[in-house]
Design goal:
Layout: H1 2-9, E1 22-23, H2 33-41, E2 45-46, H3 49-53, E3 60-62, E4 76-78
Amino acid sequence: MALYRLLDVLPVFPGDDRITRLFTLVPGSGFGVDALAAIDGLGGRTVPWAEACGRTYDLVVAASPKGDLRLLHGPRVLL
């Protein structure tokens, strides 16, 4: 399941202040508020899709190839 792949990534680089881990949902995603609540509960920071699309990233990590990932600015890797 894609959510578990993201949750596996969440603890990477703990305590490294140079890395900001942001999570968002692509519109039309099969996941909903429950997925974002799980990420929030584990200390992940979630942002709305529109805000995520307005930023530039050093790396975009995606758990699924579905949706408009091309709208996120930065190199992408698929788990």
